[in-house]
Amino acid sequence: MTDPLIPATLAFRDNGTPFSPLYDDIYHSAVGGLEQSQYVFLRGNALPDRWQGRRIFTVLETGFGMGINFLTTWAAWRADPARCERLHFVSTEKHPFTPADLRSVYAKTISDPSLAALALELTGAWPMLVPGTHRLEFEEGRVTLTLVFGDATQSLPTLRLRADAFYLDGFAPARNPELWTLAIFKALARLAGEGATFSTYSSAGDVKRALTQCGFEYRKVEGFGWKRAMLAGHFAPRWRVRRYEPPAPLAVDERHAIVIGAGLAGCAVIERLAARGWRITSLERHASVAQDASGNPAGVFHPMISRDDSVASRITRAGFFYALGRWAALERLGHKPLRGDSGLLQIAANDEEARLMSEALAAFGYPSDYVTPVSRTEAQRLAGMPLAQKGWLFPHGGWIDPASLCAAQCAAAGAQLERRFGVDVARIEQAEHQWTVFDAAGHALARAPVVIVASAHDAARIAGLQHAPTRSIRGQLTLLPRGSVPPLFMPVIGEGYAVPLSDGLTLTGATYDLDDPDPSLRAAGHLENLERVAQMLPAFSGMVDSARAASLPGRVAFRCVTSDRLPMIGNFADEDAATRDAQRLRGAWPLDLPRTDGLYGAFAYGSRGLVWAALGAELIASQIEGEPWPLERDLAEDIDPARFLLRALRQGALG
Fold this sequence. Notes:
Helices cover about 30% and strands about 25% of the residues. By secondary structure, the protein is of the alpha/beta class. InterPro entries: FAD-dep_OxRdtase, FAD/NAD-bd_sf, MnmC-like_methylTransf, SAM-dependent_MTases_sf, tRNA_MAMT_biosynth_bifunc_MnmC, tRNA_MNMC2, tRNA_S-uridine_synth_MnmC_C.
């Protein structure tokens, strides 16, 4: 289970220097935090010179603290006309500040107006204090801050990135020894790119020895302020210190990608690649976007809470936060999807579930703006009608119109997007680093070095995958006309769901019919939906009889799911090569598998496409570009399209 996140406690020395009572150490030198950051970390890593002329430059920091190093690095990037195209700053933090404390410490320590403006942007985007990886974007995505909230000893080994510079900035080794161990430096060595540099204010003997053992060469230089010496150096191993090389960008002659499918998964990929300057050709078999499962009139979005903080919960939490950030960015650009974000109530199924979830929420210590337990009385006030049970409120949950979201994402891509509808893709073929997409008649539809298959049920067939066990779930929705049921104040979910839409309709659903291909509405499905909702909302009981149910409007869609109910996101494995080398790969890990260059998948999102699609698209774009991944490597491996191939290899079922 993920450990609860304990925020930092803000305190100041008598001289005004911020310090940590937990570690009994200062956050920066009393001589000056901005000056220390410039001297120790930017100058110590030869910045900004080293990022000039680069497309991507990545800084990895141990210990975000007040964020002064990020702010000074961002300011230096802004001021440099020869800056890299995209700056990634990745930082770990076990005890992050609350937004209020961060604003307070900046108000007392930052007097430079330009830096204060950046600090204001940072505090405005500051994530909820929930464990995991949080991706923040500034400068229209050209500056990306990836914050990893949690213990660095656990989180650093899960990162997947290629670092160009390391800022070693934990509290002093004597105060915080966990952040200066051999294990920490081994984790950094696994992430170091060619020519990666490091700097740190510390010059302790244990630090020097650990750096040397992990392949770093150091030199002692004059320290900042009252410190006599500090260390700077670079990664130059004299022997092999890692099994896997850090990720590199895909080598392509042209930044052009074909996206097959224009539902939630495909449109999210379109937006994320276009934001990085890629040209996109979208191929969709229907006449417009969001026509299959993404075409429902609305869908709910919310985190997933489980008592053991399962893989699905962690991925959904990361996706929820990232989706909220992307939707807000679309709105700032003038592409506003239709959504209601006034909150969402989840109602317990029974007293036992209510008790267990209350205990879990108390143990996790989540902040109230993430999730709040509510009594039955309070839940009834929020919903505007009687409820069968108490539950929990997601203040930032709600509902969204998927088609409007897809339209907003395509609009954001602008002229970089070529849209082709009524195109039925049959197969793909690679030759000379180019993928060609064919229709059923064998006609070439498009060519590009990269293809992302986001076509749900058809994805495995198009990509020629043998190890992608997906199934179809028939889901029937029920639309209740205005005035037919009491009005709800916000969406309520539980055994079923009820969503008040902007036009006065109430959406309920959905059935879960495994491998049922019937596309027609069924009265029995409407009654099933209403019966489940009535278990949460007694006022819905008996509102519609069997005779009226047959005439109710609704919609049938077919969700694509895997056998483990997790999505398929990322670079496809080369199944033929893996089969030929099955004996050697029997004990393989995901990074050992041969991969198919330029071929990626984003499908099998089931009923969670709204919270998985944006994060999945960012993961794929990061894999293509060789950027830091937006979630932990172990979670990415849990949704890797090659995981079923890997299981077959481990079980000796191939070769």
